[in-house]
Write a structure and sequence with these properties.
Layout lengths: L2 H14 L7 E2 L1 H11 L6 H13 L5 E7 L6 E6 L10
Helix pairs in contact: 1-3, 2-3
The protein binds zinc ion.
Length: 90
Amino acid sequence: MTFDRFARAELESFFRRREELGKFYCGTCLAMQLTRRGARKVSEAAWTAAVEEAFVHPGLLQVRSVRVCEICKKPGLTIGVDSATSQAGD
Ligand SMILES: [Zn+2]
């Protein structure tokens, strides 16, 4: 498994945690969270690169441009997983 795939799997499992459902983070805060709570052997710089990549290719995750970051509360580009998929569109 390449690092990119490993990091992506870690990212997706991070957002599958029950307490992360519906939370969106900016790139800076997400990299910080992953550094503290993700795989220990991965450096913050590597997580930052992985998070930047996830914003470009979110895959199972969702990128939102109008959400407030869960941690720093700054509005901007955030990434996460919605707790409920809106059928009506919001
Ligand atoms: Zn933030």
